[in-house]
Amino acid sequence: MRLPPVRFLPSSAAPAVVAANARIAHLARAGNIEGARAAFEAMPLRTTASYNALLAGYFRNRLPDAALGLFRRMPSRDLASYNALISGLSLRRQTLPDAAAALASIPFPPSVVSFTSLLRGYVRHGLLADAIRLFQQMPERNHVSYTVLLGGLLDAGRVNEARRLFDEMPDRDVVAWTAMLSGYCQAGRITEARALFDEMPKRNVVSWTAMISGYAQNGEVNLARKLFEVMPERNEVSWTAMLVGYIQAGHVEDAAELFNAMPEHPVAACNAMMVGFGQRGMVDAAKTVFEKMRERDDGTWSAMIKAYEQNEFLMEALSTFREMLWRGVRPNYPSVISILTVCAALAVLDYGREVHAAMLRCSFDMDVFAVSALITMYIKCGNLDKAKRVFHMFEPKDIVMWNSMITGYAQHGLGEQALGIFHDMRLAGMSPDGITYIGALTACSYTGKVKEGREIFNSMTVNSSIRPGAEHYSCMVDLLGRSGLVEEAFDLIKNMPVEPDAVIWGALMGACRMHRNAEIAEVAAKKLLELEPGNAGPYVLLSHIYTSVGRWEDASKMRKFISSRNLNKSPGCSWIEYDKRVHLFTSGDVLAHPEHAAILRILEKLDGLLMESGYSADGSFVLHDIDEEQKSHSLRYHSERQAVAYGLLKIPEGMPIRVMKNLRVCGDCHSAIKLIAKITSREIILRDANRFHHFKDGFCSCRDYWIQVSKRPFDREVHHPLQANCIWSIVLSRSWVWSGVVKLSKSSCTSLVHFVRALQPAPPEAPLPFRVELKSFDWAPAPGEVELEPKLCQTDPK
């Protein structure tokens, strides 16, 4: 039965119906569509307006099928019903044709609202040609229609066309003036923006704020502040705009001063201030703002996580992300990308899988940036198969995804596959960028493909507009040097058009280490010491080279020189994840671990099996002039071997053992782990500072190119994926099992900050990402400790 309109309802019923309609609209706008539906169903009398309110609510809450079903069941429809239908169908690009069809099928004369609803849909989805065509066909236009098209033109960067439309507007309100003003600012035409601002017959706080933001976005922060000071009225948006201007200009101190002067601290301002503090490295200040906030949104958590991530407080970032989920806050794109970066740096695969699951729940698996970060995470965690599956499932692929896969294959020692992806990328019509060429050259370098590397390097200037930079030359020096062409690599450095930097000299010096060329190494070391006088890496590597060629006296002098200059080499650390806990080991110190007795038994057992397989320690990787037995003993306790032994003890058979190391794996350990993988019939994946090594059946994926010359030579702290201050944050965190205290090259103040932060107890409502099991730094074996032995599969029947 068709219900009568409101004017025919009994006078006593009309107010109740109007109130119920308002309640439906309110609940729908608040996202409570179930409540809106319940209120609609509970109405004893309904009007067309009741149906219209629920119809609009369905579309607003992305339930188009329910909306269309309701529209078909409506006992009567008015123009507002059709307008709601057109507006709802315009929300999605694929239903825009249906919206146009609905406009054409209205049984009443369409109003300007009807046309403007479809116009807004065209503009929203960037279909400006259709929008302009519809605008020209409109029998009637109002200031809203003009403003909608004006915004579309400005968003597309068509500022001159927008200005012509603005001049044609018969009635320009403050919204249109402000839109045109913002368009000029976004296009960098700040002089025209100011002229328009001065012409405005009437300004409101939004207009003033737009002009202030325009100055700030275009680097005129001082002019923005002057305008801010003379504003007749300010609100929290204008304060925040000025604050963001300072932060974008890098004036964090001025931003902090303004922040403290604000009468109120809205969420947006707090978030911006946290971002600024994070960019400046002031993590404690960011955390103070975070902890004082009474209200937080997803941007708040994202800003705090980002501050932790970009300053290498990696465990704190993980803990904060976990707390955010525990509190029911839905992650946003920046927080997901930040936490994936953290998982990649720490190589915590299990936690990365949890983040992937959260991405699927939040429908972030269709965002190209999030998926690119996800691929990188899987690659750096050693799970190349999963990275490949994610890569092949996603379309369309962007340049970052292609680059991640090329670099990933290269880092895993799969040079042929990396070059195959490189060629597939070009066949797909994607133009390589500078990073793509770095990945392809790295693939050639890691697999010794000199001919292919030369062809790719030469093609940069022939087939693309990209000129080789220092990074590309360092790849070529690396490729030539590790292929034994050290002299040719040296000549390339002499004749290159760009000034060689520390990375290039480091690549040459690494090649000298591989091929024991002390003469060229001394030249490279001298250049490195001129560029980075405080870096201990060149001294340490030169000492290694002297040792490898038997120049013990020179090596001793170099070590004494390092000690006299108080230069510390970054300590060798390896870690392995097991049961949501990360166990960290340092070279030469195994006794501090809670299960040190079992680990020692494994190492001793492995030593015997290695000897039976014909292995003998390579003493050239020991810097000190000691006898061979002492050298062998020293090599046995390198951090990567301890981690592998613990993996054999804990990781079930059939599962790969994944070990991460902050420095390059030493050559002797590389040889030993190859044999261990064969003896135990286990797959061992080792990520060092530069690449992955997949050990299986006595072979390594790097084909024994184990000395990798990094794009970050000598593990320099400012570029190393696991920096020294990051190690403090990790090893002192309660979710790590620590195996010894190390001296780090970072300043004692920085280290102390991480030490104090790590010892602060976490709130009970903030569960840590791993189980807490750090009792002290000076462990002793637990009473009655059971010494476990792994099941070893020996090749010798004895």
UniProtKB/TrEMBL annotation:
GO-annotated molecular function: RNA binding; zinc ion binding
InterPro entries reported in the protein's UniProt record: DYW_dom, E_motif, PPR_At4g14850-like_plant, PPR_rpt, TPR-like_helical_dom_sf
Keyword Transit peptide on entry: yes
Top-level taxon: Eukaryota
UniProt keyword terms in alphabetical order: Repeat, Transit peptide
Pfam families attached to this UniProt entry: DYW_deaminase, E_motif, PPR, PPR_2
One of the GO BP terms on file: system development
Domain DYW: 614-706
Name by which UniProt lists this protein: DYW domain-containing protein
